[in-house]
Amino acid sequence: MRDVARAAGVHPGTVSRVLNPSTRPLVSPRTADRVDRAARELGYSLNPIASGLKTRRTFSIGVVIPDLTNPLFPPIIRGMEEVLDRAGYTTLVASTDGDPEREQQRLRTLTARQVDGFLIATAERGHAAVAEMTAAGMALVLVNRTVEEGGVFAVVPDDRKGSTLAVSHLADLGHRRIAHLAGPITLSTGRLRYRGFLEAMEDHGLTVDRRDVVHAEAFTEAAGAHAARRLLATRTRPTAIVAANDLLALGAYTALERAGLRCPADVSVIGFNGMPFTERFSPPLSTILIPHAQIGARAAELLLERIEDPQATPQTLMFEPSLLVRASTAPPNDELSPRPAPALRRRD
User: Fold this and answer.
1) What is the pairing mode between strands 213-215 and 178-182?
2) Which of 270, 223, 221, 240 is nearest to 332 (CA)?
3) d(CA 191, CA 124)
4) What is the DSSP string of 285-332?
5) What is the pTM of this model?
6) Residue 79 contacts by C-beta under 8 Å, 6 or more apart in sequence?
7) What does the pLDDT look like over 262-302, one tens digit per residue?
C-alpha cells in the first residue's frame, strides 16, 4: 500500500480509502483514478484477510436460503448483492434443502468463517437457531419469513394482504366455493397467508368448508399436486383455488390435468409470489406479485445498518403486494358453480 501511495503521490491512508468501496466516495474522482492506475501498474489489491485482522471485519455476509432451485430466491439474492457489492461486502450463499441439520451445519460453517452478519430466509415461526444467534448478539436479518416471537430484524411481504387480494379477485369474478391450497403452518408465510384467506372469505360473506383448506407439506410443486388432489376429491369440488405460492399453483395444474379438469373453465387457480416464468405456464398464471429484489436489497441495507449500530432497535419492514391477472382465473362455469336458493313467491 505504501508503494502504491508513493507511485500515486498520496498518503497510504488515501490508498486505503480509495480501495475500500465504503470509503471511496470520500476521495475526489481524480485522486481515486490516480490511485487505481498506480495499483494496476504495481499489481496491487487489498488483502481482505489481512484487513480483517486489523478491523475485526471480514466484509463477508452469510446468506442462508432453503432451496437454491426455487425461482423465488435468485431475485432476492440479486437485490442483496447489489447493495452489498457497493458497500464492499462479499456474499456467501448456502442452501439448506429444508433440512434442519444441514442448516445448523451451514450456520456453523459461516460462523467459523467469521462473516460479519447473516441474511436468513429459512426461519420457521419458532426457530431455535435464530433465537440463539439473536441472544448471542449476532447481526442478522430475516428475509421473506419471520419468527412469531418478534424481537428480530425482518423484511417480509404483507402476506395477509396478498391473500386478501387473491380472494377478492375471485369473489369479484363470481366465485363462491373458493378453496385454499395452503403452505406449511410452521412457516410465517404459510400461517399468515392462511389467516389472510380466512379473513378475506369472511369479509366477502363466504363460508369456508374445512375440506376446502389443505396444508401442503412444503412449498413445492410435488407437494402442491398431492394437496390439490385432496381438494379435488371432495363431492362438491371448489370452482377456484387460492394457492399459497406459485409452485403449489403449478402442482394444482398437474392435479387438474390428471382429474380431466380444465383451468380456468372448470377451476380457476391463482398463485402467490409472482415468480419468473409464471407467464409461461399453460394457462399463464394469475398471481400475487411480491417485489423480491427490493425485499433483498432492503434486507441488506438493514443488515448494514445493524452492523454499524449494534444497539439498533429490531424492526420488521413489510412490502406491499399487488395483483397480476392472467388467463388462469375466470368467472365460474354456471353449470358447476353453486346456485342460490330460489326466492319464495308471496301469495296474496
Assistant:
1) parallel
2) 240
3) 10
4) PBEEE--HHHHHHHHHHHHHHHHH-TTPPP-EEEE--EEE--TT--PP
5) 0.83
6) 292, 293, 294, 295, 296, 297, 298, 299, 300
7) 999 999 999 999 999 999 999 999 999 999 999 999 999 99
What is the model's pLDDT at position 24?
84
Instruction: Name the amino acid, one letter, at 341.
Output: A
Residue reference for cell 439448506: 96
How far is it, in rounded angstroms, from Cα 125 to Cα 31? 51
DSSP state of 167: H
Residue 46: DSSP 8-state: -
Distance between CA atoms of 281 and 16, rounded to whole angstroms?
A: 51
CB 106 within 8 A of CB 83: no
199: helix, strand or coil: helix
Q: Are 318 and 157 in contact (CB under 8 A)?
A: yes
**14: enclosing H helix or E strand:** helix 12-19
pLDDT digits over 173-189, tens only? 999 999 999 999 999 99
Amino acid at 247: L
Question: Greatest CA span in the chain, whole angstroms?
Answer: 108
- The DSSP secondary-structure symbol of 111 reads H
- CB of 121 closer than 8 Å to CB of 144: yes
Query: 95: which DSSP letter?
Result: E
CA distances for 78 relative to 94, 107, 219, 231, 234, angstroms: 14, 21, 21, 36, 42
Neighbours of 263 (CB within 10 A): 23
Measuring CA to CA, how many Å separate 190 from each of 129, 248, 325?
Answer: 20, 12, 22
CA–CA separation, 203 and 200 (whole Å): 5
| Strand spans (E) along the chain | 60-65, 90-95, 117-120, 140-143, 153-157, 178-182, 213-215, 240-243, 268-270, 287-289, 316-319, 322-324
Find out whether 80 and 299 touch, Cβ atoms under 8 Å: yes
Ramachandran sector of residue 294 (left: φ over 0; alpha: ψ -120 to 50; beta: rest):
alpha
Please give the Cα distance from 145 to 147 (Å, whole number).
7
